[in-house]
Specification:
Length: 290
Amino acid sequence: MCDFKELPDLENELGPIAEKEQVCPGIYLLSAKEEDELLPRDYYAVMEESPIPLKAKSYGRKLSGLWLFSTDDETYQIIKFEVAKYRAQNNLSLDEPLRVTAFFAAQSFPDYFGAFPVSLCTSRGCTIRHWVLDNGVYWIETDQCEEVLAVCYPVWSSELSNVAEKLGEQTEYDKAHNIENTLGYIFFPMKISCIPLYEMMRARSEWAGLVIDKQALMNALWDAAPEYVCLINHQEQSGKNDLFSALLTELGIEVEPNISLDNVITIFPDAGKDFLLLKKDMTICQSRAD
């Protein structure tokens, strides 16, 4: 039975504590729920004396004698990793392999874990040049004079639809050793790269106008995959893309889905189909340098 006496009273901050578990010395996993909240929230409470680096603690919200990390905020992944690392070092059980925990945390915090390395081998040859679209998302030129979009495991396994994922290609090594074990990249030839890029833009609004020409991307989608476009547009117009209302419906709460015509894929006759702005900028810079 864990002793929780060292953990200060946090109910004024979080509401009534429903559950608490000591996951390693000085670190607690808490579940709390305010009266007006539908679902409980989970938190890591990290005490000052816990065996966690100060840099990791600094990502949390500082309170008297501890740092608080809400699982609604991605920074909790840093503490989740440090807890898993401590447990691995002390031969304690883990919920998942340590490198899986690190991979998913590194997606959001390259300043803490380092950026994902660019894959040296792709499904279309070896990498000779690349452009960074995001951490773990790279546009690659290969020695077979082909261009592919490379998407790292944490991104494609959590952000891409089954339709998009099935279009991705794997290296022979990942096929032989099971990509779920190797945590490898999947690669999309230029023609169909518009599909995963469109889906990844949902979480990267900053791409529009800087990395991706969204109107040109929509034109490319209509050209490469009209069946996919019809499916997406039908889902949007019927409210099926509103995941929050779908979740509430599953909980028995009837709400009207949010339908936005801004999310419907349309055709822009004057925009063309050359959607990758970042690569254009790099080419211009190289030409000027020459």
